[in-house]
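Protein Record: Sequence and Backbone Structure Tokens
======================================================
Scope: a single protein chain, as residues and as a discrete description of its fold.
Tokens: labelled as protein backbone structure tokens, with as many entries as the chain has residues.
Position: the record begins directly beneath this header, with no further notes in between.
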Amino acid sequence: MNAADSTLTYVDAEALKRLAQGLTFDLPRCAQVLDGALISLNEQTGLPDRMLAWIRAGGLMSGTGPVERRGRIIVDITQTMNADRQQGYFATVLCKSDERESAPVAFFSMHSPTLDVPMRVEVPLRALMVGNPPLAGSYTLYVHALMTSLGETYVYYGITKRGWSIRFNEHTRAAVAQRSKRLLARKLDELIDARAAELSGRGDDRAKLAGIISAVCGTGMSREAALAAEERMVDKYSLASKHPYGLNMIPGGLAGLSHIRNFLRDR
């Protein structure tokens, strides 16, 4: 894919590739499906054109972005598979009237055939549109939410200069193959093991994995901005010592770096 793909009106194919890298999606096909949905949405509301104008004016640096007055716009791209294991993609544009002030977002909805649980990736729609600065060399803030059969939601915040999904794949491998001591990997391993036991017909009273949502919270961030955002979000939502469903073992951002330095110094 090329960011300058002349067949696309609204979607930056290179940004989509970076922010969805590692997913099972056919990304060129997703770019086309998303672009088609935005063309139709623009004919009805003009929102995509207004978003492009806002991005050209500086995006977040110029103020709050445009929203649809009737509610939050969600473009849900779903991956399906037929009996011959051929994949298909379609996009549904939703308007959530109870979230009128929220920025438009793209959902990438999947289903794990192995564990038979839903999975979803959420990306700010603005980050996938043409006109933004290149993402290479910048940081991404992300959150993983592990939902359980008991209605619990465990959360983990992180930042990365690489693709965020690459980091999640590393966490998954650490959970399943390496038996990592990190809290996120341990909890994921525990939930997956309980779900596998349930699918095999073995009795198991443990909470089981019921779904995974990964959300991109911020893109194109400097190291300083990313560290500050991570520190704030971990402290507010996911530091294990403060929150019962938090999966971050140490503070985020500069506080976390200081924690690591002190730990190494005192060993």
Residues 1-136 form one domain.
